Amino acid sequence: MTDRLKGKTAIVTGSDSGMGQAMAEAFAEEGADVAITYFHDQDGANETRRKVEAKGGRAIVVQLDVRKPDDVERLLQETQEKLGTPYILVNDAGIDSTGKQVPDMPAEDWDNEMKTNLYGPFYCCQHFIRARRQAGGNGKIINITSVHQEIPRAGAAGYDVAKGGLRNLTRTLCLELAPDHINVNNIAPGMVLTPFNQKAIDDPKVREEQVKSIPWKRAAEPWEIAKLAVYLASEDADYVTGQTFTIDGGLSMNLGQGA
Predict the structure, then answer these.
(1) Residue ranges per structural domain of the chain
(2) Which residues does residue 37 pair with via DSSP β-bridges, in sequence order?
């Protein structure tokens, strides 16, 4: 613990499990208070709250559907009222693809993936930026994208397109928010042992097969993503903006090998 985030308030969407939970705990360890959000898993969110408070941080838990602008506005209001104006926003809430290819994908599936993975971060950024500007500027936005912003998967059009769009939202916001000294960056994980990859967590054989294409021959742990997020949320990264930080054990460097 170095108190790099002492006195700061962070919002971490989707912090009821996985990377979001790890980031919330890591922020608290560095001195931050944290607004924790969940969609379905209230028990998981309450566990995150316990972890944050055990590290000495204050916490609130807010049920949130990032697809709904009114829910996002309520999140910002509750955070400001109970913890103070947020200084850090992490857009972590997201859903995976359904596995259906484009000709077979119902429009509702496409809409759901786009609204959750792209519209949701857009709404959160809007309200966060307005709050920061009212506070005089400064702040940190961290968008959790994916290696799939660059590496497409058959059967994952909605997810891939949304993550690619979020990358470009980040880069656009970098230009728009430079006068406000609000840093905006992406973390693009590869395979991480979270509920997204529950089969690999539960079955070592599945995990062994899935990591074959990763040069490091293992998946990341959520705490490894959290450590990078702490850096990007801290003053150490004040001159870093508009960038994607890929953390994938070399997976994206393995493209085309053996072709």
Answers:
(1) 9-248
(2) 62
Q: Are 149 and 167 within 8 A, CB to CB?
A: yes
Q: Could you tell me the two tokens for 61?
A: 């838990």
For 5-46, the pLDDT digits (tens) are 999 999 999 999 999 999 999 999 999 999 999 999 999 999
pLDDT digits (tens, 9 = 90+) for 106-128: 999 999 999 999 999 999 999 99
Q: Cα(108)–Cα(1) distance, rounded to whole angstroms?
A: 45
Per-residue DSSP letter, 180: G
What is the set of active-site residues?
159
Identity of residue 218: R
Give CA–CA dist 57/19, Å, rounded: 18
CB atoms closer than 10 angstroms to residue 145: 27
Q: Are 186 and 245 in contact (CB under 8 A)?
A: yes
CA dihedral sign, ordered 157, 127, 7, 134: positive
Q: Which residues contact 76 (CB under 8 A, 6 or more apart)?
A: 11, 86, 127, 128, 131
| Contacts by residues 56-60 (CB-CB < 8 Å, ≥ 24 positions apart) | 56/28, 56/29, 56/31, 57/27, 57/28, 57/31, 57/32, 57/33, 58/33, 58/34, 58/83, 59/24, 59/28, 59/33, 59/34, 59/35, 60/35, 60/36
Q: Structure pTM?
A: 0.96
Domain 9-248 homologous superfamily, CATH: NAD(P)-binding Rossmann-like Domain (3.40.50.720)
* Cβ contact 36:62 at 8 Å: yes
Q: Where are the beta strands (DSSP E) in the chain?
A: 9-12, 33-38, 59-63, 88-91, 139-144, 182-189, 244-247
